[in-house]
Amino acid sequence: MRDGCRTFGHTLLLAGRAPQRSGRSVGKAAGALGKVALMTKWEYATVPLLSHATKQILDNWGEDGWELVSVIPGPSVDGDPRNQQLVAYLKREK
């Protein structure tokens, strides 16, 4: 557990707060079955986006299993803030 959170499969659980199913918590049900909740491992990528090919770039990464997390302004190419390049942050399960 890190930062008060843990994962069960792909579901993020806050410490002490498990989703309820049939009146029993997922943690108790998993314990009864002898299963251990494991944290999902992710890998990340940062990708510069070209304004004229943004869709194609994201489609190509998506076909390889990458999920878009965020797009933020990146560094300016020539020092002019109006010419900032966008940067995409992507993740996929390891």
Largest sheet: 3 strands, antiparallel
**What is the ordering of alpha helices and beta strands?**
EEEEHEHEE
Helix content: 10-25%
Tally of contiguous helical segments: 2
Low-confidence spans: pLDDT under 50, at least 5 residues?
A: 1-25
CATH topology of the largest domain: Alpha-Beta Plaits
CATH architecture designation of the largest domain: 2-Layer Sandwich
Overall shape: elongated
Number of domains: 2
Quote the beta fraction. 35-45%
- Spatial ordering of strands, largest sheet: 5-7-6
Please report the distance between the alpha carbons of the first and last residues.
Answer: 19 Å
Secondary structure: number of strands: 7
- Write down the CATH class of the largest domain: Alpha Beta
Instruction: Compute the CA-based radius of gyration.
Output: 19 Å
Structural class: alpha+beta
Average pLDDT works out at: 76
